[in-house]
Every structure is written in C-alpha cells, then in structure tokens.
Amino acid sequence: MITDGLMLLGVLMALACLLIVLEKNSGWKVFKYVPGMVFMYLGCALLNTIGVFGNDEAVRAPASDLSKVLLPAMIFLFLFECDLRKIWRLGPKLLMTFAVTVVSIFTGMVLVYFLFQSVLQDESWKALSSLLASWTGGSANMVAVQGILEAPDNIFGYALITDTTMYSLWLMVLFSSVGLASRFNRFTKADTSHLDLTDVIEEDDERPITASSLAVTVFGSLFVAIVAKWVGDHLPELGDVVNATTWTILIVSVLGLVVAVTPLSRTAGARQVGSLMLYMVIGNIASGSDFSAITQAPLYLLVGGLVLLFHALIMIGYAKLTKTDLFTIAVASASNVGGLASAPAVAGSFSQQLIPVGVLFALLGSFLGTFVGLAGAQVMGAF
Description:
The protein is mainly alpha-helical. The chain has helices at 5-25, 30-33, 36-49, 57-78, 84-88, 92-116, 124-134, 139-149, 153-176, 181-188, 211-233, 244-260, 270-286, 297-322, 326-337, 343-350, 355-381. Helix 7 runs parallel beside helix 9. Pfam families: DUF819.
C-alpha cells in the first residue's frame, strides 16, 4: 500500500505519461474507440480498489491540492480557442440548432432523473449533473462540475462509465447517419444555404511549440488559476452550488474568453498542456473510486441511453418543423455529447469543408458546459 502522498502523486504522473505516449505513438486501435483518459480513470480506480492507494487524508493531500489548481488552469487553456466573434458569425440557424440540442439534453436528463430518482443513490444528481456538463461541452466540464458539487467518487465513476459507453455508441449512430443524409433532408425539406460559410471561417496556421509558448501556457495558466482560486475563496457562497470553486471556474472562464479575442490565444501548446492537466485531474478523482459497487453502473447506463433517446426524438421533430438538414443536427449533437474530439470528425464525414463548423460548435459547448451542468444541479438537487 502507498502511504506517501508524493509517491501516490508520482504514480498518477507515471500512469498518465504511459497512457499519453501509448495513445499518441503506439498505433493501437483500441484508442480510436476508448480515449486514453478513460484508461487513466479505470487504471487508477482499479489500483485503489485492490488497496494500492492508502485512504489516509495525508496520502491524498498532494494530489488533491494539485488538482485544485490544475482544474481552473486547464479550463483557462481550453478556452483560448473559443472566440465568440467567430461563433456568433455562424448565423441564427446554426446557433438555434445548437441551442435546441443543449435544451433537449438538459430536459432529457432532468426528466429521466425524476423518473429514476427513487432507485438511484441520494447524491446521484451530482454525478448526473457532471454527465450533463460533459454532454454539453466535454470531459473538462464534467470534472469541473464534479469538483464544484463534490460528487462522491464512486457515483462519479458510474457517470464516467456512462459517458464513455453512450458516447461511443452515439458516435457510431452519427457516423452511420451520413448515408441517410439525402433521404433525411428530403423528409425535412431542408434548406442548406446556411452552410455556405466561406466568409465566416478562417483557417488558423499551426505554430510550433517553443520554450516561450510552454512558459506562457504552463506558468501563465497556473498563475491565473492560483489568483482566481484566491479571489474565489474570498467571495461569498450563494446557496449549495455557488461556492469558492464555482467563483474560481467563473473567473478563469471569463478570462479565457477575454484571451480568446487577443493575439495571446494563438500561443502554441495551450490545448496540449490542457490535455495533460486533464489526465492528472481525472487520475486524482479516480484514485478515490472503488469498483466494488460497480453493480450500480447498468442503471446509470440505462439513464444515459434514455436521455440520448429523448434528445434524438426532439432533434428529429425540430428538424422537421424548421426544415433543418441532417449535417447541422448531427454536428450539433456530436459537439455536445462528444466535444472537440469528435465534432470535427462527424462534420468531416459529411464534408471536409465544414469541419470548422464542428470545431466552433464544440468550442461553444466547452464554454457553456460547466454552467449548464450547474443549472441542472440546481433543478435536480431541488427534487
């Protein structure tokens, strides 16, 4: 058993390093279907389940303290590319579709929780709020809401398993829908003129990662996170949701959006460094999880499946009423449920020229995800 806090932190770093290297360089097909961060969660949770990690508070303290800084720093970096000016220029039809997507998933989550509340754990609403955040913006939002609400690690594990499983199945559905696009568009009598975005979307050139860019992304983001945390600790709590962590996340989110409209947003390595931080945050959460109660997972998988079914029915009805094409529906859904990793891929399966639409949708979701998750917590927590 590991009884030294720094050694536990070292194990998390070593496992993160191994998985990142394997995912990027091994060529193993498994990583096409299951992201490395999921293996990070499963690996750390398994080590804790078999008793490798000690449960003493002093053992957990170093990794926990580091995560409290890495989480806001990671969100700050992920918002570097979220230029709201570009997103606004997508036009009303695309933005309306995105809004309906968010509302359908939000409503579905609340309704399904209401139906299953009696058979779920008392604090399951916290985990489902984290899942809602993930299905609006991505994994970074998921762990942000988990940190704010302090969702129990075990229950959060069910949400993560549901997220990964349903996400994979949903992507298969979206990719498979490409062949039905013309038939679907005839069914909805879709007008695709709003997809001519040549004057809206510009391609950004990749810049090489240098020592100075790493200094900005690593040291700069950590400094911003530490200052935001200090300010957040001194602001008043409002109810059960708006606490010091909420204020911290709000501060770094606003600062991230400010940076996104400045030349600093093009600093190389922001997304990569943010991804490294995400691994460590996931690892810290997983190190407190226990698989011994995994029998509850199928119930959460059922909840997730019903939420996506409700979402699909709403989007089909919306498409019919507004004469919206399948591309717009599919990419809006992928940008919510899958985030930045999958929305461009789904967009590219329809047309390579429309990949930036998926990117912009996903970036908008990455900003909104945390706040949508917290809104869901307010509603579900009141039941």
